[in-house]
Design goal:
- 2 copies of one chain form a homodimer.
- Chain A is mainly alpha-helical and 231 residues long.
- The first copy, chain A, folds into 2 domains: 81 residues, Winged helix-like DNA-binding domain superfamily/Winged helix DNA-binding domain (Arc Repressor Mutant, subunit A), CATH 1.10.10.10; 144 residues, Four Helix Bundle (Hemerythrin (Met), subunit A) (Up-down Bundle), CATH 1.20.120.530.
- A 3-stranded antiparallel β-sheet of chain A has the order 1-3-2.
- In chain A, helix 5 packs antiparallel against helix 10, helix 6 runs antiparallel to helix 7 and helix 9 packs antiparallel against helix 10.
- The N terminus and C terminus of chain A are likely disordered.
- Chain A binds a DNA duplex (30 and 30 nucleotides) through helix 1 and helix 4.
Amino acid sequence: MQIESVKQVRRKEIIRAGTTVEQMVRAIADMIVTGVMSPGDKLDEISLASRFDVSRTPVREALGQLCAMGLVGREPNRSAVVTNVNERHLHSMFEAMAELEAICARLSAQRMTIDERHALEAEHRASMQLVHRRAEEEYATHNTQFHTRLYRGAHNDHIYDLVTQTRARLAPFRRAQFRLPGRLAKSYDEHDVIVTAIMRADAAGAGQAAYSHVSIVSDASTVFASAKEDV
Amino acid sequence: MQIESVKQVRRKEIIRAGTTVEQMVRAIADMIVTGVMSPGDKLDEISLASRFDVSRTPVREALGQLCAMGLVGREPNRSAVVTNVNERHLHSMFEAMAELEAICARLSAQRMTIDERHALEAEHRASMQLVHRRAEEEYATHNTQFHTRLYRGAHNDHIYDLVTQTRARLAPFRRAQFRLPGRLAKSYDEHDVIVTAIMRADAAGAGQAAYSHVSIVSDASTVFASAKEDV
DNA sequence: TGTCGTCTATGTGTATACAGATGCATTGTG
DNA sequence: CACAATGCATCTGTATACACATAGACGACA
C-alpha cells in the first residue's frame, strides 16, 4: 500500500517533470550534437534512468530510437555508445548530403508553387541584412529554414525524410560553420545562385549550385580534423 | 524456487526456439513484405508475444525497430499498425529510389575498381541465360545482386544505407515484377545500357540509364492500383 | 615477477506486475 | 427507435525483479 502511494507520488513527479520518451531522445541527441558527449562515450541505462528520474524501460526505448537515428551504436550485452564515425564514413555522409541537396534543388526548380518561390526569394533577400549585421546565430537559423524550404519544395515526402535524417546525423559535425570570416557573405552569394536558378526554373543550374554549396560548406576532412582534435 | 525452475525451462525453450529480437523483426517484416499482413492491420503486442513465445518487452523492441524501418506506424496508446502509404507517398518513394539508383550508377561509373567492373559485367552476361530460360525467380535473385553491386560500387557507405533502407520500404510493393511477359528481356537490355556506360566510365550515361530503368520498372500508380485491389 | 584463472561487481536482456487510456458494448432515456 | 452516457474489457506505457553476460580485480602458481 505504501509502496503504491510512493509509486503514485513518483508518477506525479514524472508527469510534472514531463519526462516523456520523446523528450529524453531530444535531450540525449542534444548532448551528442552539441558535443557534451563525445563519440565513444558510454550511455549507461541505469545512470540515464536515474538522471531523468524514470525506469530503465523508457530509457531503452529512447536509446533504440537514437540507434535508429544513427546517433548511438548498440551491441548485445554492452552499453550503448555515441557513434564514432571514421573520416571515410563522415565524408560519405557529406557527399550524400550534397547529392540530396542537389536533388531537392532540381526538383524545387521544377515543382515549387508560385507562393513557395516568392517565399524563398523573400526570405533569402531578407537575410542580406543578417549578413551585413554579421548576425551569425540568426543567419544560422535562417540558413536552416532556407534549406528546409528546398527540401519541402521538392514535393517528395520520402526524399524529405532522407535528407532530414542525413542532416540530423551530420549535425554533430557542423558546429560553428558561420564563425569563419567571410563565411556569411559567401553563403549568401551561394544561396543567391540557387534562388536565381530556381526562380528561372533552371533545374540543372539549381542542382549544381546546391551541390557545390553544400560541398564547399562541408569540406569534410577539415571539419573532421577539428572535431577530432577536441577529443 | 519452483517458479525459477519454470523460468529456466521456459528460457531453455526460448533459446532452443532461438527467438531473438532480430529474428522477430525479420519474421514480422517478412509477413508485411510478403503480403501476409496488409497495410492497416494491427500488430497486437500480446498476440505477437504469445505467438513468438516471449514476453511483451522484446516484442516492443522489435516493433520499435520496425517503426524505425518505416514498415509499421505507432501512436501513443494505440496498437502498432502496418504502415498504410497513400499513392502520393508511394510515388515519392519510387522517385527517390530512381534518384538514388542514378547517383549510385554515376558514382559506380567513376569509382568502381577494375575487379568490381569485371564482376558486374560477368554477372550481367551470365544472366542472359536466365532470360532465355525464363527463370523468373533466379533472375529476381540476380537482379537484387546486380543492384546491390551498383550500391556498393558507389563507394559511399551512407548512400548505401539510404538506398538499402528505401529498397526495404518499397519491397511490399514490388512483388512479381518479373512475371509480366517480356519483362525479363527488357530488364536485361536496360541493365546492359547501365553496364556499358559504367565500363566506359560514362557517369552521366550510367546515371540516366539507371534512372529510367528504375522509373520504368516501378510505374508507381499501376503497382499501387494492383496492390490496392488486393486489399 | 609475470601470467593465467577465478571471482565479483556492474550492467544488460527479459519477464511480470500494475496503472492509465482507449474503444466498444450495454443500458437508460428522450 | 435512436442517441447518449456509463461501465467494462482490452491493450499500451512504465516500473520492478531476476537471470545471464561481461569486464576488471585479485590471488595462485609457474
